[in-house]
Specification:
- The protein has about 350 residues and is of the alpha/beta class.
- The chain folds into two domains: about 5-205, P-loop containing nucleotide triphosphate hydrolases (Rossmann fold), CATH 3.40.50.300; about 210-354, CobW-like, C-terminal domain (Hypothetical Protein Yjia, Chain: A,domain 2, 2-Layer Sandwich), CATH 3.30.1220.
- Helix content is about 35%, strand content about 25%.
- It has helices spanning about 20-30, 75-90, 110-115, 120, 140-145, 145-155, 170-180, 200, 220-235, 260-270, 330-354; strands spanning about 5-15, 35-40, 60, 70, 95-100, 125-135, 160, 185-190, 245-250, 275-285, 290-295, 300, 305, 315-325.
- Strands 3-4-2-5-1-6-7-8 form an eight-stranded mixed β-sheet, sandwiched between helices.
- Helix 10 (about 260-270) crosses helix 11 (about 330-354).
C-alpha cells in the first residue's frame, strides 16, 4: 500500500509590522493557491485583512479564495489534527499545503519543533520551510533592540525584505549585509506592497532532510559557508550582529563516526539546547555511500538522512551552527572530545578482542 504523501507546512514569521499578513494576503489571491489551509495565532494581528475575524477552531472558515482558515485556540497539534480530520470527513475542502502565520512577537522555535517531532503531526505533515519578513525601514533597529526579531531572522530559510520602496538604498544594503552575516544560508528577496510570488512562501523545501533532492546539492551551498567561515574569525571582534548570536561553520577533513557525532549532539542539546538556535550539516561518517544530512532547531533534530552519493568532490564534514552565546571554539573542542572518546573506546575494544 502506497504511503500517503505528507502535507507541507510553511511557517511565516517576522517582527511586528513587517508585513507578514500583507504578503500572505497577496499570495493567497493568486492562481493555484485555492487549496491552501491557513493557520494564524489568535493573539496576532488581524490576519488576511478583514477576512480573519476571531474564528474558533470548530468553525474553520472558507475564505473567498477557497482557502481554509482557522485561528489557534490551543495547542498547534490539536489544530493540525482537527484540520486533517475535518478534511478527511469532507467537512472542509481538501488542502494541499498549510501556511502558519505566527504573531510578530512569537519565537518560531517551538512551532518548528512541533512540526519536526510531534508524532501526531509528522504522520500527516512535514515542515517545508520557514520564511521571515524583515522591514527594510525599521529592520536594523529591530535587530538591535529585539531578540525575537534576531531569532526569527536566524531561523529562517528565506528572508523577505518588505517596504524596500520606502527605504534608502544604503539602508537596504546595510540591512542585507547584517542579515547575510547573521544567516548566510538564507536566500533574500525584496517585496514591495506585499507582492510576492507563491514560490517565495511554498517552494523553500530545504528544512527537512527527508525531502532533500537525491544529490543534496542545495542542502549546504559550499561557497556560501566557506567564504563566511574564513572571514568570520577576523571580523568577529566588530562583527555586524551587535549581539551574542553567531553563525559559523565547523569543518573536519577526517570522517566523524555517527556514535561520536550523536554523543556531541546529545551533550549540546541537553546542556545548551536553548542556545543552539539552528544546526545544519553534511557529515562524512566514513561509511560507504554518501554523507549524512543533519538538521536541528534547539533541542529537536530531524532523523538524519544518508544521501546515496556526495553532491560534489568536497568530502569534508561541514556543520553550520547558529548559536546564542556559544562560540566556535567551544563547540569545536567538544566535538573533538567526543571523537577522541569514541576513537579511544573503539581501540580499547579491539585490543581486548585481540
Amino acid at each position: 500500500m502506497k504511503k500517503p504523501e505528507l502535507i507541507p507546512v510553511s511557517v511565516l514569521t517576522g517582527f511586528l509590522g513587517s508585513g507578514k499578513t500583507t504578503v500572505l494576503n497577496r499570495v493567497l489571491k493568486q492562481k493555484g493557491m485555492e487549496n491552501t489551509a491557513v493557520i494564524v495565532n489568535e493573539f496576532g494581528e488581524v490576519g488576511i485583512d478583514h477576512l480573519l475575524v476571531e474564528t474558533a477552531l470548530e468553525g474553520a472558515m472558507l475564505l473567498e479564495s477557497g482557502c481554509v482558515c482557522c485561528s489557534i485556540r490551543g495547542d498547534l497539534v490539536d489544530t493540525l489534527e482537527m484540520l486533517r480530520v475535518r478534511r478527511d470527513r469532507g467537512e472542509i475542502p481538501r488542502f494541499d499545503r498549510v501556511v502558519l502565520e505566527t504573531t510578530g512577537l512569537a519565537d518560531p522555535a517551538p512551532v518548528l519543533q512541533t512540526l519536526m517531532k510531534e508524532p501526531t503531526v509528522v504522520r500527516c505533515y512535514r515542515l517545508n520551510g520557514i520564511v521571515a519578513t524583515v522591514d527594510a525601514v525599521n529592520g536594523l533597529a529591530q535587530l538591535d533592540q529585539e531578540e525575537i526579531a534576531l531569532k526569527q531572522a536566524a531561523l529562517a530559510g528565506r528572508l523577505l525584505l518588505t517596504k524596500t520602496d520606502m527605504a534608502r538604498p544604503e539602508q537596504i544594503a546595510k540591512l542585507e549585509a547584517r542579515l547575510r552575516a547573521l544567516n548566510p544560508g538564507a536566500t533574500v528577496a525584496h517585496v514591495i506592497n506585499g507582492e510576492a510570488a507563491p514560490g517565495l512562501l511554498f517552494d523553500d523545501g530545504n528544512y527537512d532532510p527527508a525531502v532533500v533532492g537525491g544529490d543534496g546539492d542545495d542542502w549546504l551551498p559550499a561557497a556560501t559557508y566557506q567564504d563566511h567561515e574564513h572571514d568570520h574569525e577576523q571580523d568577529h571582534a566588530d562583527h555586524v550582529h551587535g549581539d551574542d548570536i553567531q553563525t559559523f561553520c565547523l569543518s573536519r577533513d577526517r570522517p566523524v563516526s555517527w556514535p561520536a557525532l550523536r554523543t556531541w549532539l546529545d551533550s549540546l542539546t541537553s546542556l545548551r539546547g536553548s542556545d543552539l538556535l539552528r544546526v545544519k550539516g553534511i557529515v562524512n561518517t566514513g561509511d560507504s555511500g554518501g554523507p549524512l544530512i543533519l538538521h536541528g532547531v534547539q533541542h529537536v533534530f530531524h532523523p538524519p538522512r544518508r544521501l546515496a552519493d556526495w553532491p560534489d568532490g568536497d568530502r569534508r564534514t561541514r556543520i553550520v551552527c547558529i548559536t546564542r552565546g556559544i562560540g566556535r571554539e567551544s563547540l569545536s573542542n567538544a566535538l573533538e572530545v567526543s571523537i577522541g572518546h569514541h576513537d579511544n573506546h573503539g581501540n580499547h575494544d579491539k585490543r581486548n578482542q585481540g
